[in-house]
Amino acid sequence: MAACGGGATCSYAAHSGGRANRGRKKKHKNHRRRRPNRIEPSAQKGFEIPVEKSDKSSRALAMAGEAGRDPRAWLAVNETAAAFLSRSLSSWPPITLPPPLHRAPLRPGNVVEIAGPSNSGKSHLLLMAAVQCILPKEWEGIYFGGLGRAVMYLDLDCRFDVLRLAQILRNRIAEGCRSAHLRNGDPEPENNGTKDEFQCSLENTLFSDCMQRFLYARCCNSPEFIAALKTVQSQSRREVSGAGIYFVMIDSIGAFYWIDRGSQPARENKGRTLQSITESVVHELRKLLQLQPALVLVTKAPIYGEGTTTANDFNRVSSKYMLGDSTGLGYSRQGEEKTVSNREYMPSIWQSFITHRINLQVEEAEVPSVLESEVLPMHTSEWVQPCLKMKEKFSIMDDGVSLIQ
């Protein structure tokens, strides 16, 4: 019995082993027969979407997303890559800004850093861009070419000039009204150098509407700056005068650098170092851009320049030219001091957050003004990111920026 049992056991094992081997062979055979997934030419015709259907699907997809944001409705629509790109780019069209900011195509979500020394025109370019944003595109049949959106201006230098903003805005309004009268062939709305009451009332009404779309906050330290960014996030949830915040302006980002750096040892235990403060600023700005796509314009002044360079920087500059003549030494030092003044001092997290960067300079040359007794300084601009490999010369006047050919 034991032998029989042992034989039965052996035969069962052999039988079960044979079935297992056949199963493995069968699976291996099926695996060898498996072919890569391919779409036959006859089936590919069903996946081709004509241009008309692509446009319709793109519109249907946008409507489905705006209506109920139903995932099934989103999956039910076929859309080509070309239709997706055209729809995405049309939803965020490029923003037209006054020169010299007009060279680079800017869109909501970009962060532009305007760097330059004092009196290079950084704050003036911010005011020009702000006026372009708060002005309507068309008002009472008069074309102004603005965006009709709100601006949030964060003043960290505490040197904001509201009279300068009002002057630029009134000049743009008067220029638009004057151009409209010239196109219509109407006479000038001025009589002996003064405007009539109707024209003044019209311009004052538009001026008030535009100023309601300009939001301003003054910050005296980094905690107030971070709190203001949180306020901008809550402010962006509701519309201001029928328009959401479209421009966020910061003047200037390095205003509290020395304060934060000087108090850094006392704040190490509390986690309020210069690096952590910059990380908080970038974090709040990213949250704002996710909540409300906007264009961020930031000014940055150099903190390392003539009179503020460290001893190591000065020794490194002068040691290279100790054997040169006086002319060459002066020229070389001037170039090196310019390099030191443009030295980056913001943490790396801020540098990686920037998408566009433009450098402004003030040249020694002067430009004659319309008034014979007035001479304007000449400014230069150069796009560093993206690198456009060109320098533009311009002058700043009361009615705007004039490019110099």
Task: Report what the structure shows.
The chain has 405 residues and is α/β, with parallel strands linked by helices. The protein is built from 15 helices and 13 strands. It has a nine-stranded mixed beta sheet with strand order 7-4-8-9-1-10-11-12-13, with helices on both faces. It has a two-stranded antiparallel ribbon with strand order 2-3. A two-stranded antiparallel ribbon has the order 5-6. Helix 7 packs across helix 8 and helix 9 (222-236) packs parallel to helix 12. The longest helix is centred in the N-terminal third of the chain and has 32 residues, at 2-33. The model is unreliable at 1-17, 25-31, 34-54 and 306-337 (pLDDT under 50).
- CATH topology (fold) name of the domain at 98-304 and 341-362: Rossmann fold
Mean pLDDT: 75
Number of helices: 15
What amount of the residues lies in strands?
15-25%
CATH class annotation of the domain at 98-304 and 341-362: Alpha Beta
Strand elements, count: 13
Which architecture name of the domain at 98-304 and 341-362 does CATH use? 3-Layer(aba) Sandwich
Give the strand order of the largest sheet, numbering strands 1, 2, ... along the chain.
Answer: 7-4-8-9-1-10-11-12-13
Give the termini distance in whole angstroms: 112 Å
Query: What ranges have pLDDT less than 50 throughout 5 or more consecutive residues?
Result: 1-17, 25-31, 34-54, 306-337
Radius of gyration: 33 Å
Shape assignment: globular
> Structural class of the secondary structure composition?
alpha/beta
